[in-house]
């Protein structure tokens, strides 16, 4: 989940609150108005990243496994076992893979991309009707200007809650209409349908993850069946100095599983073998990666991977990110089959709302979020 990286970790007795408050020290609040900043030659200093974190040019492409889900969904046992094997291999190594023949209607994907313009291309004042409130994770965010004062991401986002519970079948549509107005009813319907499709796809992937870990296909599927997830629309406008900034800073997703669909513009990069690699867009495929919550659920066997997004000077880049999260009352605790004398418990029990609160109020998510959260949780409980 794209919340930008920190390089200096503070003692857990005082989790990094100064990073959440330092906006107050600025006399003139910064506003990220993409319609103006996309043409600006001199970037505000808040968007300029340190030299060691600036984007690399021509990052080599990462060879990511391409998982064909056609045989799995049709019940082919040989294809299913092979898909589970390749998924497991990728998750032990770096936590990223691609899925094709996923069964999601190509028209729905196209509509989900095209409808983003209906929101992000309107004047800033209209987008601010959905402004994200302090400490909340849903709504419109123009960069993170209200939350941080340095290493700001060059992007806009619109995030909203999704629930797979039966009594929440219109939760996305209702939120978007209530927030933006009834003229966004069709807009809301598209993303309600898209989230439903992503939820179903994620449950299938959870079956493969369970099989790859040797605990059967039902365990994780049942854990996430009534998921309470997050959908995010990412909009990266052109930047005249793309070598100075990042669209999304280096981070591991705190959530369980991310299903990402990129448009045809390059931008996603993954840190593997001590080097940044690019993952090229493929309209027919979804990029899937493991998040911190599932790393804890797998008792550390599967890895959440460091990744980021870069921008360019000519073309807007769009991506659709579905973050699978367990229902709020589900306890994140690995199945007993994944705990033994050789692999004792790595992380304490927690619920997703606890980790979400940590990343929203105490810590700017990075590659060490789960470790920092574990230390914070243990201190809090003691």
UniProtKB/TrEMBL annotation:
<dbReference type="Pfam" id="PF14226">
    <property type="entry name" value="DIOX_N"/>
</dbReference>
<dbReference type="InterPro" id="IPR050231">
    <property type="entry name" value="Iron_ascorbate_oxido_reductase"/>
</dbReference>
<keyword id="KW-0479">Metal-binding</keyword>
<dbReference type="InterPro" id="IPR027443">
    <property type="entry name" value="IPNS-like_sf"/>
</dbReference>
<dbReference type="GO" id="GO:0045544">
    <property type="term" value="F:gibberellin 20-oxidase activity"/>
</dbReference>
<comment type="similarity">
    <text>Belongs to the iron/ascorbate-dependent oxidoreductase family. GA20OX subfamily.</text>
</comment>
<protein>
    <recommendedName>
        <fullName>Fe2OG dioxygenase domain-containing protein</fullName>
    </recommendedName>
</protein>
<dbReference type="GO" id="GO:0046872">
    <property type="term" value="F:metal ion binding"/>
</dbReference>
<feature type="domain" description="Fe2OG dioxygenase">
    <location>
        <begin position="227"/>
        <end position="326"/>
    </location>
</feature>
<dbReference type="GO" id="GO:0009686">
    <property type="term" value="P:gibberellin biosynthetic process"/>
</dbReference>
<keyword id="KW-0560">Oxidoreductase</keyword>
<dbReference type="InterPro" id="IPR005123">
    <property type="entry name" value="Oxoglu/Fe-dep_dioxygenase_dom"/>
</dbReference>
<dbReference type="InterPro" id="IPR026992">
    <property type="entry name" value="DIOX_N"/>
</dbReference>
<keyword id="KW-0408">Iron</keyword>
<comment type="pathway">
    <text>Plant hormone biosynthesis; gibberellin biosynthesis.</text>
</comment>
<dbReference type="InterPro" id="IPR044861">
    <property type="entry name" value="IPNS-like_FE2OG_OXY"/>
</dbReference>
<comment type="pathway">
    <text>Hormone biosynthesis.</text>
</comment>
<dbReference type="Pfam" id="PF03171">
    <property type="entry name" value="2OG-FeII_Oxy"/>
</dbReference>
């Amino acid at each position: 989940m794209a919340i930008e990286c920190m390089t200096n970790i503070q003692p857990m007795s005082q989790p990094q609150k100064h990073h959440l408050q330092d906006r107050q020290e600025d006399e003139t609040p910064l506003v990220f108005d993409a319609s103006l900043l996309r043409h600006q030659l001199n970037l505000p200093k808040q968007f300029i990243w340190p030299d060691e974190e600036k984007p690399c040019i021509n990052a080599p492409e990462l060879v990511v496994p391409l998982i064909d889900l056609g045989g799995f969904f049709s019940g082919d046992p040989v294809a299913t076992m092979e898909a589970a094997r390749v998924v497991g291999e990728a998750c032990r190594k770096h936590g990223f893979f691609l899925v094709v023949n996923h069964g999601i209607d190509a028209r729905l994907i196209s509509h989900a991309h095209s409808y983003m313009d209906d929101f992000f291309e309107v004047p800033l004042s209209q987008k601010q009707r959905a402004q994200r409130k302090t400490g909340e994770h849903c709504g419109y965010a123009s960069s993170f200007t209200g939350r941080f004062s340095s290493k700001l991401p060059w992007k806009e986002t619109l995030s909203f809650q999704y629930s797979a519970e039966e009594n929440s079948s219109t939760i996305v549509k209702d939120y978007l209409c209530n927030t933006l107005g009834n003229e966004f009813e069709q807009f809301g319907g598209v993303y309600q349908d898209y989230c439903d499709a992503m939820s179903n796809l994620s449950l299938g992937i959870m079956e493969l993850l369970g099989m790859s870990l040797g605990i059967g296909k039902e365990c994780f599927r049942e854990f996430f069946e009534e998921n309470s997830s997050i959908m995010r629309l990412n909009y990266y406008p052109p930047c005249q100095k793309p070598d100075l900034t990042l669209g999304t800073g280096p981070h591991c997703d705190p959530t369980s599983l991310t299903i990402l669909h990129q448009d045809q513009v390059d931008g996603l990069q993954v840190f593997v073998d001590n080097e940044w690699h690019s993952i090229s867009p493929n309209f027919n495929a979804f990029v899937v990666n493991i998040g911190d919550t599932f790393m804890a659920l797998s008792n550390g066997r599967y890895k959440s991977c460091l990744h980021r997004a870069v921008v360019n000077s000519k073309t807007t880049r769009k991506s659709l990110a579905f973050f699978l999260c367990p229902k709020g009352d589900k306890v994140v605790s690995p199945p007993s089959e994944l705990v033994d004398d050789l692999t004792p418990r790595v992380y304490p029990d927690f619920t997703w709302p606890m980790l979400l609160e940590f990343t929203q109020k105490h810590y700017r998510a990075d590659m060490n979020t789960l470790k920092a959260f574990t230390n914070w949780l243990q201190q809090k409980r003691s």
